[in-house]
Each structure stands twice: as C-alpha cells, then as structure tokens.
Amino acid sequence: MKKVISEIGEKLRSNEYKLTPQRQQILEVLLENKDKHLSAEDVYNLVKQKSPDVGLATVYRTLELFLEFDIIHSVNFGDGRKRYEYGENSDGHHHHHAICLKCGKILEINEDLLEELERQVAEQYRFTITDHELKIFGYCEGCKVNAK
C-alpha cells in the first residue's frame, strides 16, 4: 500500500497538488476497501474512525480530485448515490456489475463480452466508441432462494 500511496502522491505533485494527510487518509480507506463500492458518506464514516477532524466537504473534494486524475472511478447504480472504486482505468473500459434489486448486493463482472457489439456499432454506424458500462439488475442467489 505504501508504494501505491507514494505513486499517487507523485502523480498529484506532478500536477501541482499535494497529498495532504486528509487526502492520504481518504486514499487509505479506498485502498483498504477496494473490493467495495463506497459512497462519499461511506468513505467519510470510515475516515472519521481514523481521523475525526476530516470533514465531509473534504471527502467530496478529494474524491472529485481523485476522479480527475483517474485514481478512482465512479459508478451510479441507479439509487441516486455515486459510488467510488479505487483503480485506474487505463484502457477506457470499466468492469461491469450485477446488482440485486432486493438486498443491494453488487457483483463485479470482469469479463468484457461487449467487444464484438462495440465493433459492430463502430462499423455499422461509423461511431467512435470511447467507453461503455453495463449494469445487470436482478436477484442474487440468497434473495432468490429466500423468496421461494
């Protein structure tokens, strides 16, 4: 984790920003929870446990800064809350998500099966595709079983 923090600190410095102690705390929370999809409020609550002096506005500003420099990316699951994930998106494509409508569980789908569709759309419509996002809504195994 120290190496990643150091690299991100350098990335910020090269763009005339500092990795302040508050930003580092926020980054550490994102790194410690990189398998989760955290809202700004989730990040805030986790940071407050370690550093009570960090405010919600600081969390929002830091998340936007991290988005700007492609340190994290955000996803909207249709519930009115933006969620954040650590991870640079170097190839322009995000992984996809399956979202349970009952419990809200989010499963990551790492297979990218849309490449052929993108190729066809680009060819047929002479459209330059820069990104895509796929969200699949339904019921997870636990909710499906409990509904019976």
UniProtKB/TrEMBL annotation:
- Mind telling me what this protein is named? Transcriptional repressor
Recorded hits in PANTHER family, A to Z, give: FERRIC UPTAKE REGULATION PROTEIN, ZINC UPTAKE REGULATION PROTEIN
* Binding residues annotated for Zn(2+), in chain numbering: 100, 103, 140, 143
One Pfam family from the record: FUR
Q: Name the Gene Ontology molecular function terms of this record.
A: DNA-binding transcription factor activity; transcription cis-regulatory region binding; zinc ion binding
Q: Which organism is it from?
A: Desulforamulus aquiferis
Q: How is the cofactor bound?
A: Binds 1 zinc ion per subunit. Binds 1 Mn(2+) or Fe(2+) ion per subunit.
What keywords appear on the UniProt entry? DNA-binding, Iron, Metal-binding, Repressor, Transcription, Transcription regulation, Zinc
InterPro entries membership: FUR (IPR002481), Fur_C (IPR043135), WH-like_DNA-bd_sf (IPR036388), WH_DNA-bd_sf (IPR036390)
Family assignment from sequence similarity: Belongs to the Fur family.
Q: Where does Fe cation bind?
A: 94, 115, 132
